[in-house]
Amino acid sequence: MSSAITDFGHHDAHGEPRGLLRWLTTTNHKDIGILYMLFGLTMFLLGGFFAELIRGQLIHPANHLLTPELYNQVITLHGLVMVFGALMPVTAGFANYLVPLMIGAPDMALPRLNNWGFWLLPPAAIVLVLPFVLKLIGIGNGPVDTGWTMYAPLSVQGGPGVDFAIFAIFLLGASSLMASINIVVTIFNLRAPGMTLMQMPLFVWSWLMTSFLLIAVFPALIAGSAMLLADRHFGTHFFSAAGGGDPVLWEHLFWFFGHPEVYILLFPTAGIMSHILPTFARKPVFGYRAQVYSYWAIAALSVVVWAHHMFTSGMPVAGQLYFMYSTMLISVPLGVLFFCWMGTIWQGALSFETPMLFALGYIVLFGIGGLTGLVLADAVADQQYHNSFFLVAHFHYALFGGPIMGVIAGVYYWLPKMTGRMYSERLGKWHFWLTMIGFNITFMSQFFLGVAGMPRRIPDYALQFAPLNMVSSLGAFLLGASQLLLVYNIARAAAGYGKPATNEVWDGAQGLEFTLPSPPPHHTFEEQPVVT
Amino acid sequence: MIKQRKLILGSTCLTLVPQLAFARNPFEFQTPVTPIARETLYVHDLFLTIIAVLFSVGFGFLLFSVIRYRASRGHRPALFSAPRTPLQWALSALPILTLVVIDYIVMGIPAYHAVLTLANTREDAALVVKVTGSQWRWRYDYPDQGISFISNLSTSQEQRDSGAPTDPNYLLEVDKPLVLPVGKKVRVLLTSTDVIHAWWIPSFGIKQDAVPGFLRETWVKIDRPGIYRGQCAELGGGGHGFMPIVVEAKAQPDFDKWLADAQTAAAQAAAVTTLSKPELLKRGQQDYATYCALCHQPTGLACRAPFRRSLAASRSPRRRP
Lengths: 532, 321
Known about the structure:
The complex is a heterodimer of chains A (532) and B (321). Chain A is mainly α and 532 residues long. Chain A has helices spanning 2-6, 19-25, 29-57, 68-103, 111-119, 121-136, 154-157, 161-189, 202-233, 247-281, 288-302, 317-329, 331-345, 354-376, 382-385, 389-419, 425-452, 466-494.
């Protein structure tokens, strides 16, 4: 990164500012990509800190680390920060940095919009977390405490922290929509001559589908949040039965956004998989077309299955059956994706550098997340699983085991390209194995807790849940601590230590980004390459 | 003396690790006692077996690849990027078709019947019970019998402050459990007075949201007498973790006797129209402990927390008296 930061002397004709002003005013896709990723990393650490607080509270029964109110605030911030602050920005950062390089474009299509989209994020994060900081110094009664799902009427009843969260969502929504529109426009208009849609790298395809999903569903959350704001302060009754509304309407609006959100987080990393696996298997992508069609199918299905999050809310039989069967259908395109990933490594010549390890870990952990999701689709069995720790374990296998593992794999894979330096392979391997062990200890025990009957979001629990909670907490501390290795590895490469990376970085690497120097110059593909 | 102390220490350890002590199968739900819970357990066991097999097959292929196709062992990569022969196409379609069969035949058909069974709350219902969630307690009404009472957490404050609770029913004990007859279908109506709560008893296989302003319904038919415990399963604010559900299932004669006693007590209470001052004070104290104490201190200060030590610090604009 350091060389990327300073290495732009060759184009100072238009006098770009240096220092802080450069980062504030930059419209360069690589700079903005790096900003997104650093922001995501910061939020990942903050969200991880909240996670450790949760596990600290739950380490034994009758613990008084957090009060119940503070506990509710911490679980809420953990969810919101991880989803909106860490995962979405970091994948958007990958898109900004890599999509123009992969399609041979000089930059994103709308550079100023790009700058604006990013700089909405820090204010959003501040607005979200500020009440927490103020509470610590004794001002106000803390941030949003409703769980990240913000179910009405609890969120109508809550304190001013909910208003802060609503405004954070407005900012995040505007930011996501700008980024998505920019990516769609870039992909449709700036591809190198000769690169048809069906020749695009799969990461580009995955972000095209992500952008479409974001544009389709984020407005539902923004609208819902505006209705919530109106209910709280303007005397409307969208979510209040007393005024002719319905609390369950919020659940529909939220999950119409919330379920596709899972795939918004997942798609970019599914795309990353199809770059890493072929590289380290030294073999072409298996089933390119099948993967593209699976993306389409998953994107289309994801917007029509949302109410499987609401099987216990009380739905008519027809609704239960529809959402159950449509949810099951998603397993088919996801199965195709898994099959293609396995087909890619089948009969390859595998080597196991850190990105490959994380990619294989992704297949295993996300596989468990997907398979347990199959079980959750059963509307009646869901009465046992829903809002129990089984559900918590399931979506952490799906969201940490999937997107976060995939993002880490992507970081190790492209870090040498972005910084020009190799990370420490030895520490990378330590990071992988500690993450796998820590993660499975933390969340495998939560499957058993859920089956035994422990509800989620409780600050204290009955004694029969004590041993497994202790195990889960210890695993979480290990998992949290091992992520510091990632931070160190990134900082080390960014500071210019480590072996210099070649242009190709990996000996099996394919793609336009690997034809460029490592790190790539500030402006790339000013003349577009011709793809044949 | 020493022996006794050792015994106490030992039994404390045992209560802290009941899962090890009773060697409960960690893959199983709590013992099912209703038709729905039994069906769910059957489905759960079936699913776990199926996904364990699917996972093993997938993981097996992965492990095989990782061991067999190592570059370090000089393996040359193949070049294929899609199935080519009809046999390969068939082999590729096989896992997908297997998934479809599992989804819509193995899981889908029993699930269809389970949904219909669960939705059939009225047929042959012998008793109707109304469950009302409030922050943070449950209220139970028997509309046809004219009985209603509130069920509060009864775990002692000492246990909660101790840091090392020993009560085997820690946080799962209430002052007045819901009493239901065994072997009869009971239709359960649910609603709430403030936010969404969820009534969950693992042994019954039932989890149903209680939505303010609306009636939801479900049903139970309990096999055998006993005490069954559950908890609220939808976040409803600071006391969400402290509104347990306890159901006492009684054989029909015992239930009838309990019903008669409860009706008599209710009639007596209703018949009393004038109270002396000490009686009024006693009634007021009871009412405060039952209804008010969870949110309000005797001093009039607001408090939302079941943990008293945090009361002075927490202020809530909407809950201030």
